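To whoever is covering the structure queue this week,

Two jobs came back overnight. Logging them here so there's a record in the thread.

Job A:
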Amino acid sequence: MQIEIFTTGGTIDKIYFDAKSNYEIGEPQIVELLRDANLTVDYKVTSLLRKDSLELTDDDRQLIRAAVEKSEAGNVVITHGTDTMISTGLALQGLAGKTIVMTGAMQPARFRFTDAIYNVASAITAAQTLPAGVYIAMNGQIFDPLRSRKNVEMNRFETV
């Protein structure tokens, strides 16, 4: 397997039920996205969690780290909620021999207008081309979790 993709929940997998934005985290959407994209890369999808990233705990981050460490794949993509993606990226630092790229979406993948497709494609490409380390693929850029932040007002990630 060339890439292992771990899903943890977040907006990318959200299902909204009404105009008040009540939601739940649904089935991982990445399998459908990759099938529709006719992806020819060898990959495996492993669902770890179905949580909003604001609900992730340190134990959840350790679960993610252990799964990545145990994976036989050297190239890893993690779908994750954007609010605490940087915290999880920091928890993944120091895993030797792994290129880990985290990504998510500001709008659910189920929406007609979503950034999910572009972000996932960027993450898969980055996982295959970047050297070992931990990265975030969002907004058409690759970020280092040690030097980035989510700008909530502008709805994007940026280097600090």
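Job B:
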Amino acid sequence: MVSSSWKRTLGNVRSFVGNSLGGLRGGANLASWAVAGTLAYFLWVKPSRDLKREQERKAALAAASDPYAYVEKRKPIPDPQETGLIYGKRAGTKDSGKDKP
């Protein structure tokens, strides 16, 4: 009885996986995944890589044109309440000295 239980469980898992993949078996399943993968590559992956390469190429051209140009190497911390950007220790609030006598 115990051996039939795990066989049934394994069969249920295989059935679930097969159904979740579209219910196709064999060559049709492989062909459909190949078509889906090819479409995904040409619609999402390739354009993303091409855009990244183009941006890197433009950045390299810009850097080559002026090698002494200043380039900010650290990312600013967003601060929507104050000025929008913080690069270090805050100087203080804007109204810190107005209300004091």
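Note for Job B: The chain has a mean pLDDT of 76.

Please reply-all if you pick these up so we don't duplicate work.
Q.
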